[in-house]
Write a structure and sequence with these properties.
This protein is an alpha+beta fold and about 110 residues long. The chain has helices spanning about 35-40, 55-65, 100-105, and strands spanning about 1-5, 10-15, 20-25, 45-50, 70-75, 80-85, 95-100.
Length: about 110
């Protein structure tokens, strides 16, 4: 398990399960996207993340298909570039796209 404090608004814990990581988020303030989610929904799945090799191309493709960007591109946990996409147009669950480490290592 790896835990980090992200920008003083979240404690983030990662638990590896096979080839995936399950990320646990704990808001450390009463304001913000994650704190609001807890107030409105209680505990549960906030978002699902997918690694992509080319974040900019993946976001452009999503936008072309009518998906709204909620946040990003920005630096996320573990220093990866991330974007959050609006869950309303994706079946109700927010989607996080994160640039895979392989893509930056290969360039």
């Amino acid at each position: 398990e790896e835990v980090e404090n992200y920008k003083e608004i979240l404690n983030i814990g990662f638990v590896p399960v096979g080839s995936i990581d399950i990320e646990f988020l704990e808001p450390t303030t009463s304001e913000g996207l994650n704190a609001d989610f807890l107030k409105e929904n209680g505990e549960g799945v906030h978002h699902i993340a997918f690694e992509v090799e080319d974040l900019d191309a993946a976001v452009a493709n999503a936008v072309r298909n009518g998906v709204r960007v909620l946040l990003g591109p920005t630096e996320g946990a573990r220093g990866k570039r991330i974007v959050f996409l609006d869950g309303i147009s994706l079946g109700g669950t927010i989607v996080e796209l994160l640039e895979s480490p392989q893509s930056t290592d290969q360039q």
